[in-house]
Design brief:
RibonucZ/Hydroxyglut_hydro; WH-like_DNA-bd_sf; about 20% strand; Metallo-beta-lactamase domain-containing protein; Sec-metab_biosynth-thioest; alpha/beta; Metallo-beta-lactamase, Chain A; four-stranded mixed β-sheet
C-alpha cells in the first residue's frame, strides 16, 4: 500500500473528451489523500452511461453535474451507472443518480452481497476494528488511540442496492458500445474493470493505478485470500491478445499507455513486500505477531507517523501478505492470545 497526499488548493483536472463519445469527469473526494475520482461518461443516442459515480456529498454531486454539462448532459440524462466496485468513492452517488434519472445501477454479485453486510452502527464498526487489532497483536495503547479515530457520528444510511448484476464477461446494455466486464477481485471481492475493444482502452478502476498501489484488505473469514486473488487478476490482464490496451483509464491519478509495464511493477512491489515480511520474521527468530511484522515493513512514511485509517489499512495489508505466504507454505498462523505467525523451514 502506498498513499498519495496532495496539498490543499490544487485544482481538479479538466473535464476531457478522450475519444469520440467518451469523456472523463473528475469528481472531488472528501478525503485527505486522493483528491478526486474519475467518472467516465459514454455517450449514446439513448442518453449517458457512467463508469463509477463519486462519493455521496453535495460537492461531488454538483461537480458531476457540472462535468456532465461540459459534455452536453444532465444528471437526468443518465441511463446506467456501472461502479467498478462498492467503495464509497465509486459507488456512493449511484443511488442519488438513479433517484434523479431513473438509471439502472450495476455491480458485480460479490460486491452486491457485501453491501447489506457492512455494519451501519458506529459501535458495531468499532467492535470489528478491535477484533482485527487484537488478532494482529496491537498493544492496548495503540488500540485505544485507534479507537479515537473519528467514526460516523450516527448510523450509516443503508446503501442503494444495484438493479443489475454484472458477472465476468457480461456486456452491459450500452447502445453503440461493446463494453465488457472483467472480474478482477482483490481490492474488493467484486471489483470490475471494463474493456472497450474498439478504442483499445481498459477502464481499470482501482485495480491498476499508474503510481500508487491499491490497498488489499485482509479478510478474517475462512481461507479468503484477497491478495492472492489480486495477483491472479493482474496476471489475467497481462494478455496482449485479449487486452491489447492502447491506454489505461484508471479511477485515480492519470491515464497511461503501458499496461504490461505497470502490471510488472505491481507484481514486483508485492514481491518486495513478501521479502520484507519474511525478513521481519527471521529478525524475530521466526515468530512474531502481525503487528510486529507490520512495523518492520516499508510504508510511505515512518511507522510511528502513520495514524488512523492509514495505520489500519497498513495492518490489514500486512495480514493479507501473511495469508498469501501461508497459502504458499512459507509461514503458519499459530493460535494464541494474540495469534503469532511462524516462519516454516524452507
Amino acid at each position: 500500500m502506498t498513499s498519495l497526499t496532495q496539498p490543499p488548493g490544487i485544482a481538479l483536472p479538466p473535464v476531457e473528451r478522450l475519444r469520440p463519445g467518451l469523456w472523463s469527469i473528475p469528481v472531488p473526494l472528501p478525503t485527505a489523500g486522493l483528491r478526486h475520482v474519475f467518472v467516465y461518461l459514454f455517450e449514446t443516442d439513448a442518453g449517458g452511461y457512467l463508469v463509477d459515480s463519486g462519493w455521496d456529498t453535495a460537492e461531488a454531486f454538483d461537480a458531476l453535474g457540472a462535468g456532465l454539462a461540459v459534455a452536453g448532459y444532465r444528471i437526468g440524462d443518465i441511463r446506467g451507472v456501472m461502479p467498478t466496485h462498492m467503495h464509497p468513492d465509486h459507488y456512493g452517488l449511484a443511488g442519488r443518480i438513479r433517484a434523479e434519472s431513473g438509471a439502472w445501477v450495476a455491480l458485480h454479485p460479490a460486491d452486491a452481497a457485501l453491501l447489506g453486510q457492512f455494519p451501519r452502527e458506529p459501535a458495531e464498526m468499532l467492535a470489528g476494528l478491535n477484533r482485527l487489532l487484537a488478532r494482529a497483536g496491537a498493544p492496548a495503547g495503540e488500540i485505544e488511540a485507534l479507537n479515537r479515530v473519528a467514526l460516523p457520528p450516527g448510523p450509516m444510511p443503508a446503501p442503494a442496492l444495484p438493479d443489475v448484476l454484472l458477472a465476468d464477461g457480461d456486456r452491459p446494455d450500452i447502445p453503440g458500445w461493446d463494453l465488457r466486464a472483467v472480474w478482477t477481485p482483490g481490492h474488493s471481492p467484486g471489483h470490475l474493470c471494463f474493456w472497450e475493444p474498439a478504442n483499445r482502452v481498459l477502464l481499470s478502476g482501482d485495480h491498476v493505478l499508474p503510481r500508487i498501489t491499491p490497498n488489499i484488505p485482509f479478510s478474517p473469514v475462512g481461507d479468503a485470500d484477497p491478495l492472492g486473488d489480486y495477483l491472479s487478476s493482474l496476471d489475467r490482464l497481462d494478455d496482449a491478445d485479449t487486452f491489447p490496451a492502447a491506454e489505461v483509464l484508471p479511477a485515480h491519478e492519470h491515464r497511461f499507455p503501458d499496461l504490461t509495464g505497470r502490471l510488472a511493477a505491481l507484481r514486483d512491489h508485492h514481491d518486495q513486500r513478501f521479502g520484507e515480511v519474511l525478513a521481519a520474521l527471521r529478525a524475530a527468530d521466526g515468530t512474531a505477531t502481525a503487528w510486529d511484522v507490520c512495523r518492520q515493513m516499508t510504508w510511505s512514511r515512518p511507522w510511528d507517523r502513520i495514524e488512523g485509517f492509514m495505520k489500519r489499512a497498513a495492518l490489514a495489508e500486512a495480514l493479507a501478505h501473511l495469508r498469501v505466504l501461508e497459502r504458499r507454505g512459507l509461514v503458519r498462523e499459530v493460535d494464541g492470545e494474540p495469534p503469532t505467525w511462524r516462519l516454516l523451514a524452507s
